[in-house]
Amino acid sequence: MRFVELVVNPDEGWSRFGRAAAADQRVTREAIHQLEPMDDGSVVMLYELSGDHDTIHDLLAEHFDAKGSELSEVAGNVLVYAHHDPSPTVDGLLRIPRELGVVVDTPLEFTRDGGIRLTLVGDEADIRQAIAAIPESVQHTVERTGEYRPEQQRLFAELTDRQQEILLTALEMGYYEQPRRATYEDLAGELGCTKTTVGEHLRKAEEKVLTGIAPD
To answer: CA 104, CA 95: separation in Å to the nearest integer?
Structure first.
């Protein structure tokens, strides 16, 4: 069984709420942990956001059209359980995996530019058809592909966007090879950040990965 990780980003944005949240620097859309289409065409979803809680509540009240919703605060972030009607763009994207027999793995993570990073799982030919079926109005970029290993995918998904970016860059540049082919300074130059930032993110990523693979 194969997987493809890609980032999708509609030209028009995901929704009225999504556009408002993206424009407000006090709020970050973190991930969609569940996204379940219903028989009537509506969607039930579990949405995670971080940032100023009052701002999140105000934006949801003003811009999020839902048949019903419930908010809770977990580990400093806001979780939104909502039942709502998707936009035509989202509805079209949700039909692709259902019609072509591929699975969308969760969570779906938001990128810094407002796209969603998702993983399609299934037969290679079906995945290719699913990608080809993405509308022209939705920008999409394939980032990774390979043999699907559920635990490995979930472990990587637990890292933040920045941790994933720095860890992948470190691997690509040979930081973990023996002897090392790259230093913190090399990584910082490639990523446009400081050596301190590289070190902090790599240490946190390594801790999560090692904790995840260590036996209980």
So the answer is: 11
Q: Do 133 and 15 meet the contact criterion of CB atoms below 8 Å apart?
A: no
Crossing angle of helices 124-132 and 88-100, rounded to 10°: 160
pLDDT at 216 over 60: no
Tens digit of each residue's pLDDT (9 = 90 or more) over 77-134: 999 999 999 888 888 888 898 888 899 888 888 887 888 999 999 999 999 999 999 9
Q: How far apart are the first and last CA of the chain?
A: 28
Q: Is the pTM value of this prediction over 0.90?
A: no
Contacts of 2 (CB under 8 A, 6+ apart): 121, 122, 123, 124, 127, 145, 146, 147, 148
Question: Which one-letter amino acid corresponds to residue 91?
Answer: D
Please report, for residues 22, 29, 196, the alpha-carbon distance to residue 111 in angstroms, rounded to integers and kept in the order given.
11, 9, 23
